[in-house]
Task: structure prediction
Amino acid sequence: MKKPLNAPVLIVGGGIAGLALGIALRRAGRDVELVELNSAWNVYGVGIILQANALRALRQIGLADACIAAGFPYAVSLHHEENGQPQAARHKPSLLDEGLPASCGILRPALHNLLRDAALAAGVQVRLGITVADIRDESDAAQVSFTDGSQGRYSVVVGADGIRSHVRTLRFPEAMPPRFTGQGCWRFTLPRSAEVSSAVMYHGRQARLAGLVPVSPDQMYLLLLSEEPGNPRMPDAELPDLLRDRLQHFGGQIPAAMAHMPGPEGIVYRPLETQLVAAPWHRGRVVLAGDAAHATTPHMAQGASMALEDAVVLADSLDDADSLESALQSYSLRRFDRCRRVVEASVQIGQWQMRPEPGADPLALVREVAVELMRPA
Ligand SMILES: Cc1cc2nc3c(=O)[nH]c(=O)nc-3n(C[C@H](O)[C@H](O)[C@H](O)COP(=O)(O)OP(=O)(O)OC[C@H]3O[C@@H](n4cnc5c(N)ncnc54)[C@H](O)[C@@H]3O)c2cc1C
Result:
């Protein structure tokens, strides 16, 4: 039975976790306020992959069909040698019995717009360009001061403010900072070629993995994972040349895709970093969700899935429990092992790419974990 929270929930961060949580809480009849630091409230224009478990969480907040319609569903990953020679076709675990495809490529802005519009339509009260300055727990509420000088009282404060979470710094000051894994990820968007109707991957020298993923009938994105010792800064102006250099030995569809390489403004480079905060993910009235609690690498394309699942499970836990403390305990209990499995397996796969070990089978580990994740969150 739903227990009344005595004040609104405050969500800090209007990304995937924060918006999904806002929608889930509004569907449960909660009052929700959200602050987002980025006053433009925009995201970069490349793609991501939503796996079946992400689509299941999106279905729970009423958005799976819209995401599938805005993206490009597919069922297989086609793996190749560096020169384009086919290696293996891997059928991805799916939730077909729940009417969901195995995967869906989607442009990050398309996903953001769907989540944002649904959150606003559901009645989440959003303020942009500010964040929390201070959070003080009192017996019946958290007293929050914001950077614009305003104040508010909330039943719960959710840190959904991403991998460099300010809320985590405020409430979990001992948490280790995100750790660079040794690899970086390059992405740009280009017109979809008719041959790319599922993920098409190429395993190259120097631990490089290049791929093409459809994100709509007209578009796909190119991604490259590369080892980047020392985590070098990649000057914006040099991004096209640096990426061209790293792709030069790839065959198959990659040379044709390189002909569409945009200028620096169209290339997104991110060093890969991970973070796993020890459970429980709450202290007093403050709780973490999404990358703020557990950031992973894209090797399993599960970061957004975990953020979406967090949102659904946290809203559900707040609905079910006898007290706030037991609700937040239950949330961490339900989430920690699953998120740890994703983070550790993703890091392991990256390490095997950089330092191959006899008998190591990264694709088998991807599949093993993906099958586990088909179980409900
Ligand atoms: C290279 C790369 C590729 C990826 N590919 C995939 C993929 O294919 N599939 C997949 O599932 N996942 C992928 N991910 C992971 C996925 O993008 C993240 O896990 C997901 O975005 C996490 O959502 P989040 O809401 O926790 O954080 P974010 O999406 O980062 O959102 C955080 C929000 O908080 C805001 N914010 C930050 N600081 C503050 C503050 N102090 N106050 C208020 N607001 C603040 C930010 O502006 C942002 O809007 C990838 C990640 C990387 C780096």
User: Anything to note?
Assistant: The chain has a mean pLDDT of 96. Residues 12-18, 35-38, 48-49, 54, 131, 160-162, 166, 185, 270, 290-292, 298, 301-305, 307 surround flavin-adenine dinucleotide (CB under 6 Å). Residues 324-354 form the longest helix (31 residues). The radius of gyration is 21 Å.
